[in-house]
C-alpha cells in the first residue's frame, strides 16, 4: 500500500473533544482526547471490506490475531458477508483465531503461535487473511508471516486497522490499512492498557491519569 491508501491521523488534526461524544463514565478522566470516533472507524471498515472482497479469488480463511484484533475482526467479517464480487458471487468464509506472542520485545527470536503444527498445516493451499488491530514495530507480524509461508498457503494477506508511525518500525506495511496514527499510546475499540479500555468504542489517547490509575 501507498500512504495515500490509508487515512493519516495526527494529534493536531484529529483531536476531538470528549464533550462531543459519549464516553463511559468510568473512563471520563482516563483519556485526554478522542483520536478516531467509532463512526469513522466503521465507515473505514466498510471500505476495507470492499477492497478485500474485490481482491479475493476464492474461499477465504480469515484469521483473527487475539486479543486486540477481535473487534476489528468481528466488524470486518460482518461487512465482508454483505458484499459480492464484481461477477456477483459472494466470498465463502471460514474463521480462525491465533494468539501470537513474541518471546522478547525487540529481538529476532521468533514468535510463539497458539496453533499446533498440525492445525497450521490445514492452511496449506488456502487463501489467508490475517486480521490485526495495530502494527507497531512490525517484527511480530513478519515472524508470523514467515512461519505461515512454510505451510504453503495459496495466498497470505494482512489487514491492520492501525499502523503506528514510529522510528522503531522495520518497514513492514500490511496489504490493507485503516489508519496511520502517531507514535502515541492509544486505547479503545478493543485496544487495551493492561486489559482496560477494551470496552471503549472510540480510539482515544490515554491520559497520564489513566496510565497511573491502571498501571500494574
Describe this entry's structure for a reader.
- With 216 residues, the protein is an alpha/beta fold.
- It has a single domain, classed as 3-Layer(aba) Sandwich (Rossmann fold), CATH 3.40.50.2020.
- It has five helices and ten strands.
- The chain has helices at 38-55, 70-82, 117-121, 139-149, 208-213, and strands at residues 7-8, 31-36, 60-66, 93-102, 111-113, 127-135, 155-164, 176-181, 186-187, 203-206.
- It is globular.
- It starts with 6 loop residues before the first strand and ends with a helix.
- The relative contact order is 0.20.
- Mean pLDDT is 89; it is low at 103-108.
What attributes does this structure have?
7-stranded mixed sheet; 3-stranded antiparallel sheet; 5 helices; alpha/beta; 25% helix; 216 residues; Rossmann fold
